[in-house]
Amino acid sequence: MDTRVKTATLFDLRSWSAGCLDRVERALERWVTAEAPAGLDHGAPAELVEAMRYAVLDGGKRLRPLLVLAACEAVQGNEGAAMRAACATELIHAYSLVHDDMPCMDNDILRRGKPTVHVKFGEATALLAGDALQALAFELLTPEDATFPAAMQAQLCRLLARAAGSAGMAGGQAIDLASVGERLSERQLRDMHELKTGALLQGSVMMGAACGNLIQAEKAALENYGAAMGLAFQVVDDILDVTSDSATLGKTAGKDALQDKPTYVSILGLERSRAHAQELLARALAALDGSGLSHDRTQALRALADMVVNRAH
Amino acid sequence: MDTRVKTATLFDLRSWSAGCLDRVERALERWVTAEAPAGLDHGAPAELVEAMRYAVLDGGKRLRPLLVLAACEAVQGNEGAAMRAACATELIHAYSLVHDDMPCMDNDILRRGKPTVHVKFGEATALLAGDALQALAFELLTPEDATFPAAMQAQLCRLLARAAGSAGMAGGQAIDLASVGERLSERQLRDMHELKTGALLQGSVMMGAACGNLIQAEKAALENYGAAMGLAFQVVDDILDVTSDSATLGKTAGKDALQDKPTYVSILGLERSRAHAQELLARALAALDGSGLSHDRTQALRALADMVVNRAH
User: Fold this and answer.
1) What is the pTM of this model?
2) Burial class of residue B26 (count of CB atoms within 10 Å of its CB; 0-12, 13-18, 19+)
3) What are residue A252's DSSP bridge partners?
4) Is A165 in Cβ contact with B135 (below 8 Å)?
């Protein structure tokens, strides 16, 4: 029997991702630059931009950009807007890693198998590179050429600012800091992760969705998908921190236990954490089933949720 | 002779500023908060917000907000939008001070007469508070209630992102870092300051202007005003660092010389620096004269430029 026909009807995440990532990498390469933006006299100083590029280019799973593009596909949204939104989420993620790795935070020297930004460029440059990456994210979302509507630009800025700020990612990191050595309940741990990682992952989904026109039921379904998938990501991160090694992860393994950080594994144990991740995957897929969005168009979102939960690094 | 009639026809900057600052303080007080934004489950963690409030509230000249509001007056723009823009510029300024004061940057322990944020809250919280303040600035510019047009929201985000980023403030700080102990030409020093301080000051003017409808000639004139005034601010800052004391400045005086930083005073000398500041003031006022905007409506901008150059701290 020729299985190729059957295979072709399955969604091929690997090939879909490769196409997206190729476009994302080229866009980031073009946008994280020392060239002066149109209308400005000055470009950016070369060393700062070098540190920004080091932090962003050629590394990472690019999960957030993929979520943006997959959600945009689900709603058949504006692809140009989605590419900018995809890159903006990655810039925010990258800046958070740069700052998170600094000595006053996690003090990590290895990231994606390379020296961290402050190790390579010094702490002051790392601090500024992170700051500049955050600003660049919002610059990307507001192109002067109006290739997509101002209302969409404003909505994308709104979603990203909330996801990144004190009631989102930065807030979650603050709770994370305060929780070292503390005993958290599962509820408290979930609250922390909903901010720290969940907000930007869910925000990525909603930014992709904001590139199209959504009815309320579709929006609510994608929010639920994003929430479940975002939390699943963190549960699996906690599992991998225990079960994997640094070479596979591309970052220091076993760090959570070493730093006495509360994790899903430390609270629920390994087996219940694994079961919880599978439950969250089921919840994310159920949200899409009930969304009213066509199964075909949500294939990338489905495959990404599955990848998040069943990944090895 | 009764001078009161004559006095009343002069623009009273003190009273104009007091009215503006009262509204700005109340707005900041309301917007830098731990409450969950509409539509979000989570508020921000209390300690992080406390550090953000400490960094922002009750301190500083609020020059950037005043420039936004004065420019909005000049173009008779949308006041609600201008108040958000005013607060957003101050949040960006405040975050830059928090990060700038950290040990890996200027390592300063005194700011506005109070311990710096990292001294009071620890370095990790200072880093995150700065990051969250930047995000909050963009959140302020994109209110969900659409009290001002989406095109204005997007334009304000665009201007702020550029002014704050690698081709603006953060870029200028990177050049500043790299220039410690270096001999700069006046041209190089000017380039550095045009980014480090000038970009956000000029950006504040242009954000205020973006709250109204401008013709091209008015826009160009306000850009010239903003550029001259922004540079004047830095020249005077360099002068005050030499001629004033810490108590008057509310920050450590004599710091530039101590850190061997190039300044206008070190390059031009004190007298030529003073003359240069007056030239820049004249240039700023001339730009307004040639703007086509009515003299009446630009009185606040004129008085602010005068105050920037002739201030004692």
Assistant:
1) 0.94
2) exposed
3) none
4) yes
